[in-house]
């Protein structure tokens, strides 16, 4: 099958709910409808913005989708500050990012915790965007394939084959996040292809062909076209460039094959 590219804007800890409304409106009204047939567009705002984004998307029947940047591995209870999969599902979220390197680094999330979160997402009908990516020293030592494939398989542990088919994977090399140092298309393709091969080995070729594998790390309108030309790169998880409506719209149009609106 041909995989439809996904461009997902990870806003990280930026924009309040009023700014969120303005940005979503800008994206939705500048990107002509025909592009949504060629590329899935999603925004991933902070929790505090999601209700406002939901109201806007539902009310104006916008074609973009939205999701969250994290979820609790638990169902409910005494977990101060956490947000459950059920709560996100109720808000109409399509996606939830799991295992972003910033969560792994600043919140000490292990592969085991990430796996619990992936399961919690799937349980509530959310599509996990499972992030894996190596640190600079791992890449310099030549261990990037081993590191990323091991994190992928650990993150998916215990999922049924059909649940794996619905998962989105994101390869985000830590050294390329927010640094302006983008992986070359061949760096991205090498790892994305290896991740697909690991899926094939474990879950079969048919499932591996259906899973979308994104690249993330300093993606901009200036480099997206070459990245999505790669056979195994099915879109991007975009940080900084997703906060600028004009830039993000441009990036989505280029991922859809252009021309610019
Ligand atoms: O972490 C990222 C997306 O999840 C990438 O961030 P930047 O696009 O800002 O490098």
UniProtKB/TrEMBL annotation:
Record-given protein name: Triosephosphate isomerase
InterPro entries: Aldolase_TIM, TIM_sf, TrioseP_Isoase_bac/euk, Triosephosphate_isomerase, Triosephosphate_isomerase_AS
Record's function text: Involved in the gluconeogenesis. Catalyzes stereospecifically the conversion of dihydroxyacetone phosphate (DHAP) to D-glyceraldehyde-3-phosphate (G3P).
Binding-site list for substrate: 10-12, 178, 218, 239-240
Record EC number: 5.3.1.1
Reaction it catalyzes: D-glyceraldehyde 3-phosphate = dihydroxyacetone phosphate
Enzyme class (EC, first level): isomerase
NCBIfam families, per database record: tim (TIGR00419)
Subcellular location(s) per record: Cytoplasm
Family the UniProt entry places it in: Belongs to the triosephosphate isomerase family.
Lineage, broadest ranks: Bacteria, Bacillati, Actinomycetota, Actinomycetes, Pseudonocardiales
Source organism: Prauserella muralis
Top-rank taxon: Bacteria
Gene Ontology cellular-component terms listed: cytosol
Pathway connected to this protein: Carbohydrate biosynthesis; gluconeogenesis; Carbohydrate degradation; glycolysis; D-glyceraldehyde 3-phosphate from glycerone phosphate: step 1/1
Single Gene Ontology MF annotation: triose-phosphate isomerase activity
GO BP term, pick one: glycerol catabolic process
Keyword field: Cytoplasm, Gluconeogenesis, Glycolysis, Isomerase
Subunit text: Homodimer.
Catalytic-site annotation from UniProt: 100 (electrophile), 172 (proton acceptor)
